UniProtKB/TrEMBL annotation:
Species in which this protein is naturally found: Actinoallomurus iriomotensis
Parts forming coiled coils: none
Name of the molecule in the record: FAD-dependent oxidoreductase
UniProt keyword annotation of Oxidoreductase present: yes
Keywords: Monooxygenase, Oxidoreductase
Gene Ontology terms, MF aspect: FAD binding; monooxygenase activity
UniProt entry tagged with the keyword Cell membrane: no
Upper lineage: Bacteria, Bacillati, Actinomycetota, Actinomycetes, Streptosporangiales
């Protein structure tokens, strides 16, 4: 049982941890509560730090081959006027490539790279017991024991509730989001980015194969849903925005739209307890406003495996993981929340000031601000 690990959660962070630990010689079991593997209808941005983490997992080149390189982007207003242009070429020169990929495709790559037979479906965690020498996990398929438990089971983590019962739960950010992938009726888009209005936003991300990942955000009461369908709601809210947003929404199928309220996690005092470690959203769920959620989960996984590979003591390695990961991820989460607050301003005077200030920001200042996040490099491992 010396190098055995249970990973709760078969999403990006959990599968990345399985790949990383497997490459270091650990025997892993991934407990996924879903009874079957399904498609996840959304895209995501892999920033240079996330791509480097995938390099450490041996998957960087494959991601670059199948992913859509970052196109021209930035922030516009709802009429299409640019407020802030991004310099993609300079960003890549300084920090490395940004690539866009369908979430389902990244999950496929991680599953393929995970140790054979590691993934166990229909195994929702219901209890955790750590006796100091091993961890016992009760789940939908029985009971598992290992030297290490990694809680990568998301925003409403069962591992976090079991081991940290007093920890704060998720908090609603004040806005809801729609996500969908749609084929653009006018052909491939050559520019992406976000458009900001008053309490509303739309983002466009071109994907390999010609599709577009579209996300829309709006201030709304928690739990609110549209009585006549989410495509109708999107067209009401954003049908008068600049091209190609109305055409993309007209081409969207109702079943392609995923709607979910946005939450983050208040800062935890620790990501580890004994032989249990939290990773990804279970540790530091953040709003999507910096595009770093999946990237930080990949960093977590690579760092955790490197530290466990370097120190034979699981508790000592986990303590080092907490020291290294918690300050960084909580800083990024705070930045993301602040960005979301400003982006979701709804007061006309405040929005006018915000948009005027954005037009004055030099591109170099944006790149410098991104430096501490994007310049991360994985530990020397794997």
């Amino acid at each position: 049982m010396e190098r055995t690990a249970i990973i709760a959660g078969g999403g990006i962070g959990g599968l990345a941890a399985a790949v990383a630990l497997g490459r270091c010689g650990w025997r892993v079991e991934v407990l996924e509560r879903a009874p079957a593997i399904g498609e996840v209808g959304a895209g995501l941005s892999l920033w240079p730090n996330g791509v480097r983490a995938l390099d450490a997992l041996g998957l960087g080149e494959r991601v670059r081959e199948i992913a859509m390189p970052e196109t021209a982007g930035g922030v516009r207003d709802r009429s299409g006027r640019w407020l802030l242009r991004s310099d993609s070429a300079e960003l890549e020169r300084r920090y490395g490539p940004v690539v866009m990929i369908h979430r389902a495709r990244l999950l496929d790559l991680l599953r393929e790279a995970a140790p054979p037979g590691a993934l166990r479906l229909g195994a929702e965690v219901s209890g955790v017991r750590d006796d100091g020498t091993h961890v016992e996990v009760t789940h939908g398929a029985g009971v598992s024991r290992a030297a290490l438990l990694v809680g990568a089971d998301g925003l409403r983590s069962a591992v976090r509730r079991s081991v940290w019962p007093e920890a704060p739960g998720p908090r609603y950010a004040g806005y809801t989001a729609w996500r969908l992938v749609v084929d653009p009726p006018g052909g491939r888009l050559d520019a992406g980015g976000e458009s900001w209005g008053r309490g509303e936003r739309v983002g466009l991300v071109p994907l390999a194969g010609g599709g577009v990942y579209l996300f829309a955000v709006a201030n709304a009461p928690e739990g609110e849903r549209s009585a006549d369908g989410e495509t109708a709601e999107l067209r009401r809210r954003f049908g008068g925005w600049h091209a190609p947003i109305p055409a993309l929404l007209d081409a969207a199928a109702e079943e392609a739209v995923l709607r979910g309220d946005i939450y983050d996690l208040p800062p935890l005092e620790s990501y580890v307890s004994g032989r249990v470690a939290l990773l990804g959203d279970a540790a530091h769920a953040m709003t999507p406003d910096q595009g770093q959620g999946a990237n930080q989960a990949l960093e977590d996984a690579v760092t955790l495996a490197a530290l466990l590979d370097a120190d034979p003591s699981v508790p000592a390695a986990l303590a080092a993981y907490d020291r290294e990961r918690r300050p960084r991820t909580q800083t990024i989460a705070r930045r993301s929340r602040r960005t979301g607050v400003v982006a979701q301003w709804s007061s006309a005077p405040a929005v006018a000031v915000r948009d005027r200030l954005l037009r004055l920001v030099p591109p170099g200042a944006v790149l410098r601000a991104l430096g501490p996040v994007l310049s991360w490099r994985p530990p020397g491992m794997l």
